[in-house]
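#data-curation
PF: Archiving a pair of folding outputs for the training set. Convention for this channel: one message per protein, sequence first, structure tokens after, nothing in between. First:
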Amino acid sequence: MLYVVKRKTLILSLLICLAIIALALAGCSNQETGSTKAPAADAYKVGVVLDISGKASSLGIPERDTVQMIANKINREGGINGHPLELVILDTKSNETEAALAARKLIQEGVLAILGASTSGSTMAIIDTVQNAEIPLVSCAASVKIVEPLNERRWVFKTAQSDSLVAAKIVDYLKLKNLTKVAFVSVNNAYGDSGREEFEKAASAGGITVTVWEKFEQDDTIMTSQLTNVKKQNPQAVIAWAIPPAASSLTENYRQMDIKAPLIHSHGIGNQTFIDLAGPAAEGVIFPIGKLVVADSLPESDPQKDILINYVSDYRETYGPPDPFGGYAWDALHLVINAIEKAGPDKAKIRDELEKTSGFVGVTGVFNMSPADHNGLAIEDLVLVEIRDGKWQISKD
């Protein structure tokens, strides 16, 4: 009997000791948990629709690389108000139908805003979708029709210089050089059509006569028929509105036909691909563009200088030489990040903050948006550039 009592006492003592040890371990565990970081906050998800493959890939690839570079940096530095930034990147394949499908998919994913697309046509294809869904869109494309009329574009913004500004810059140059009789050739798509429309307005207002209008397709490599018509008119200058590779092919054809008039392109040629494809034919081409391509030549007093030099350095370290198309994406994502920082994860408030953007110094220019202007750039954000020795240089004119 005594043995049984002692045995029960021993078992009880062991159980008490085990309980004390368990409590002690639990206390240590609680202390360790209290010293660790809180669980990560939910990610802020932003959609990206870009022309990464297909005819406009020379635009979409640097844009994709740029937004990924920015997201990595933002997340290394703690995210947006403590929330990781998650990008959902989809490829339009340079196809307008694919662009529309991508926008719908991103909306279903619950993104707070959408960046893109790379081209005017792809962007125009998704505008109705984002308008109906009431989700902010910041395009990297040029057509002024992306943001006008404003009463139909309440949710749409863009970072590339509008073709209306580029047309005005070209007309200023023509007037300066007393070139009053010109020809106009353009790619047969939304970018070319909008450029033609805006140039026609600017030329008319500036006293410039357009003697011939010609079009070509984005996949054309031979434009001799159009250029023969141009040459017959003996213009004082020829204005071209396209992107590579068609813009490069046009330039080669132009030189082969020995047309003497200066060739002035739009800002659609502002990447290394144009020079690489056009080769020696690119020599002497003039075009308006943002300051990125001549960042090293800018005076220290230029408000964009530091931003441009830093972007060039960061991009070059991973991907090689940057171009303005990547710059459009840099601006688009930073504008959205700034808006989310102020508005939080509320799409309507993000839209409102985008519209309030004032004095934002970006890669493309200094942005001042308003209810009357969803691009926010001025003609002063453009410089006239000439290709000399295979490099971009500020024009001496």
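PF: Second:
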Amino acid sequence: MTIYQLSDSIPQIDDSAFVADSANVIGKVHIAAHASVWFEVTIRGDNELISVGENSNVQENVVLHTDIGYPLTIGRNVTVGHQAMLHGCTIQDGALIGIQAVILNGAVIGKNCLVGAGALVTEGKHFPDNSLIIGSPAKVARTLTEEEINNFHKNTDNYVTRAQLFKTKLIRLK
């Protein structure tokens, strides 16, 4: 992993977190216990704080960034899917952000929401808990069932387990 101090801002990474060696973590960043930041992720905390909550996973090629006045907060037990782009937004506990979703400044994704792959959440949009959010621009399609929420929480739990495997058993060969 490449960890950068920027001016007086030093990333704070819990010892139990997994950060892949090709990830870039810069400046005002907090990564909580048992969180995972996978390969080729960029977390650029040069404007405002970026927080990744406990047990959350940020998958390959995700970009996390902020503008002044728009911190980025990822709650606990969140999955951020491959190649997603999160910018100055709030993702509440238990949400799943689909592959290549884009979430812009000031947007708030409620607890246990699923943002579909490729969705575009425009600036300042707020979505209620337990919503299926899809489209461009993104809209609520319906309320998720308890079974659907439990299924994607299992995937999040699996990432906590996988991260510990990668943290302790991954061996670079070349």
